[in-house]
Amino acid sequence: MIETLQSLRFVFALTVMLAHFSYAGVEGHTTGVGPMYFMLMTGLVMSRSYGPRVLDGTFRFRHFLLRRLFKFYPLHLLTLVAVLVVRHKTLTGADYLTVLPNLLLVQSWIPSQHYYFSCNAVSWYLSDLMLFLLLFPWLYGKIGRMGSRALFQTAAALLAVYVAYVALVQTDDLNYWLYIFPPVRLVDFIWGMMLWRGYQLYPTQGRTKWPTLVELLLVCGVVLTIVSYPLHERWHVALIHWVVMIPLVLVFMQGDSCGGLVSKLLKRRPMVWLGALTLDTYLLHQLVFAVVLNNLDKSGMQLPYPVALVSCVAVVVVLSWLVHTWFVQPVNRRLLSTINGQ
Q1: Distance between CA atoms of residues 257 and 253, nearest Å
Q2: Amino acid 197: pLDDT
Q3: Which percentage of the chain shows pLDDT scores above 70?
Q4: CA-CA-CA-CA torsion for 329, 335, 336, 337, nearest 10 degrees?
């Protein structure tokens, strides 16, 4: 486990929570940086963990796919049921029609907000993830064998195709065709795979003489892309974030062993612990926000925005820990035992 990158998962989960937290007249600040980081990191981590087996022929696709599904699908079902229970009084027949696509994790393939943001809205990410899982062995079979020249040429071609697509796509629903549509988000996943391959080819190139300064500059770069997101939505969905995110991942990957002050903070046990709860916080936070804020509204209690935000995030973290400890891990162990015993 690369602890710095693991901790950063929770940091970017916070950006998702901030985007979805609206209270006391203050709207959440939309940004695509969180899911982009998760997708990129999924490509990198899967390449690091499973890539050697793909290349030496020992990779077992069925075993791989089941292991990955066991990590998130039980929690996906739990949050789906919880959303249906909490919202049952307001659901219509049209809402119930979206349940099946959510169960099958195909909702992000349907270009209608009524479907791709249905039920537990953030689970669109899992729908995209299914495409990544299905294509991983074929993609890494190509990328994992690339030399530096082929890797550079492929990266340049991929970037050119993406820029052309973003520039030419004409639609009233940019949110879907640039942010949700699985084949487009596959590019983020591929960048993660290519980053890992680049790191294998040049494992020491990320080291720097002034690690703390470089880390702080990259953090400022991420903050700047988040703050400026509404100004250039078409390009911010992924492209401008890549400019900062790709070097950030490389620097903090090196920072796991030779980093500066920010890396040292990320490697502290509380941060690594929070990083391990990222998927739980991601899938639970909107439901928790809705329940907590609805109860605050009913009670007539008006908290200052910062207090409400911190309180809601704290509830999300605690609930995520409880769900992870008493549901996700036991179910995962039980399911894994069924395939390990074969």
Answers
A1: 8
A2: 96
A3: 95
A4: 110
